């Protein structure tokens, strides 16, 4: 089966772009919300050189089974704070992703309205039968991002 | 509504977009060819029909008011409506461009049989409304279907079919004139009838091919739920979209002001300019007909350039970004028009007008590559309509203001009007530098061939 499906997920957030961009990129922040429900990011595994050509590494672990681990290694091929970052990823440990086929993750942050941000995630190419699963995963992660941002904004 | 309530109201939009082959992209855009053929007929053949029916030349601007007014009113409304539409059988955008194409075909079929000016005016309004109904959701359809990495190909395929459709409309008029003789009782030549009939077939035929070969991407359950829960009319949706418009898109409105004002100046004055600079005559002289005929060839040529350069522009846009490609193209047209106005040899006119053909390809495609990256996909329809308002408003401003400018600032000299259009295009290029384009999206072909960067 050919990997030929791009997953595009987007959502608006009522927070300024620099805040949302930081939540995505700063290791101490992204570790607090990334991962689908039932998963979390091991904060001690996150390393990120926030620049063009910088390397990124994190490990996601299943909450009820710490032996199930999915590792992401990436290189930033574009990095424009707070507009966009693009990472060339190699993901290992996920049975639906071939670790030998690199993925591209592109996350765009567009100002919308007075102080809102439209986040658009473009990731792929995926094989058609697993694309839906990953799209759903991103949808759930963005819900967690919303919870994280509103918690951070609360006094 | 509080911030928290609004935040909870934002729904994630999820799409799985299969990468499309070039053949699929062309089939998806084929309907744009029929729609643009219809526009070509509207631009080229409707005014002669008014003339055949005995309309006064000074009434022509008023008789042509249908274009900008229907564009202003219909496109945003259709856009907002299509954003809220989903039918498992008919899709989201397809119902609109199918209805529009049917309307275009019926109007094109009936147009040559009109016997009075008022029926021609009525048909033009319906034709223009149908064209707008078909065209607006078509742009949103491209944005819906293609991942960001393929948008440049998608929109420049539309430029390709724009040039191709308009060129074929003009060529059909030229060719049928020498093949078909005779006229209807109302005095409309059969060669005009032939072109309209071909347009009627092309319009519905090409749209049907696109509809039948290209499925729409269905919304997810949560998106559908949000769609159904939407309150407020389409008008409120348009107003909200204007208020919440991304700042960079607002800047595009400034670029469009100069760009479209200039294009209307060109279209209105090119035949008069050629008459003066090449033939040394005015509209009152019988030789003016030669200038009009030569203008048809010049305009046909720049549309040929348009469809020839559309796809090379894709490569440039993905290497240098849509913004700089559009700036370069506008500058080509600016230089071209300044030179064009000063030439006295009619054959040499075909050289500088290449610049306008390049810019026309860019105008019809490149800004959309940027625009769709600035707006949420759930509102592609309404924002495409608003972008069209950015086209139509400068046209209306031109209608109201240019008469005075022409008389008082340009010495009522048509060649000066063309130079003025060139200067405005240069200003449009300068204002374009003000826009901060989202960083370039590499074409998916480049992404797939890149070596792995991470270990």
UniProtKB/TrEMBL annotation, chain A:
The record ties this protein, via CDD domains, to: SRPBCC_CalC_Aha1-like
Activator of Hsp90 ATPase homologue 1/2-like C-terminal domain location: 14-149
Q: What is this protein called?
A: Activator of Hsp90 ATPase homologue 1/2-like C-terminal domain-containing protein
Give the organism, scientific name. Virgisporangium aliadipatigenens
Which Pfam families does the record match to this protein? AHSA1 (PF08327)
Upper classification of the organism:
Bacteria, Bacillati, Actinomycetota, Actinomycetes, Micromonosporales
InterPro entries to which the protein is assigned, alphabetical: ASHA1/2-like_C, START-like_dom_sf
Family listed: Belongs to the AHA1 family.
Q: Which domain of life is it from?
A: Bacteria
Q: Where are the transmembrane segments?
A: none
UniProtKB/TrEMBL annotation, chain B:
Q: Does the keyword Ligase apply?
A: no
Gene3D superfamilies, alphabetically? Answer: MFS general substrate transporter like domains
Q: Which InterPro entries does UniProt cross-reference here?
A: MFS, MFS_trans_sf
Where in or outside the cell is it found? Membrane
Q: Does the keyword Repeat apply?
A: no
* A Pfam cross-reference name: MFS_1
Q: Where are the transmembrane segments?
A: 25-42, 62-83, 95-127, 155-176, 188-212, 300-317, 324-343, 349-370, 382-405, 417-435
Q: What is this protein called?
A: MFS transporter
